[in-house]
Amino acid sequence: MFIHIVGGGPKDHLPSLSCYDGEHVRWIGVDRGTKTLLEAGIRPMRAFGDFDSLTAEEIASLQKTLDHLDIWPAEKDKTDMEIALDWAVQQEAEKIRIFGATGGRLDHLFGNVQLLIKYAEKPIEMIDKQNIVTIHLPGTHTVSYDERYRYVSYLPVSDDITGMTLEGFKYPLTNCHIFRGSTLCISNELIQASGTFSFSKGILMMIRSSDAGTI
């Protein structure tokens, strides 16, 4: 089972959600993301949030349409996305993908990245039209070439990363020590069908992007 969560981020940051649909996919709406799913022709199995971004009429429509609409108070100690992700993690899915979590407000973006770190040991991806973000713990990890996401960047989440090694990349590394704040591992590329990245200590963020952009 795969759980796909859709938040209320700007629609122009979303990939085609239908491309991620399938028999074993369970969709979850978060606040306005619930409406986004229905507009895409996808019926979520559950929805979470205070729904303060919707009108009373829109909320009433959701209540008639969905079997499980969990409405929370606006004043609470967790974001709507955290509530939904906490529930999703308890379902022990093979993978969790989060959409609609980027663009718009930066506080929500960085908060959603923090949620990935919170569940660093879980197979979670945060996806938008241009990027895939994942969090990794120490060990050796394989990454396959994908023309859609040519550029691969690594950012330390913890204070530092020890033993960072990149093999199969345009810019390889061997047993490198990287501190938080470093841009050393920004915008790398695979030069073969697959490569590996490994490190012995720390927490690492990997971002795969569809074009080089400008810095």
TrEMBL record:
CDD domains: TPK (cd07995). InterPro entries: Thi_PPkinase, Thiamin_PyroPKinase_B1-bd, TPK, TPK_B1-bd_sf, TPK_catalytic, TPK_catalytic_sf. GO terms for biological process: thiamine diphosphate biosynthetic process; thiamine metabolic process. Keywords: ATP-binding, Kinase, Nucleotide-binding, Transferase. One of its GO terms (molecular function) is ATP binding. It holds the Pfam family TPK_catalytic. Its EC number is 2.7.6.2. SUPFAM superfamilies: Thiamin pyrophosphokinase, catalytic domain (SSF63999), Thiamin pyrophosphokinase, substrate-binding domain (SSF63862). NCBIfam families: thi_PPkinase (TIGR01378). This is Thiamine diphosphokinase.
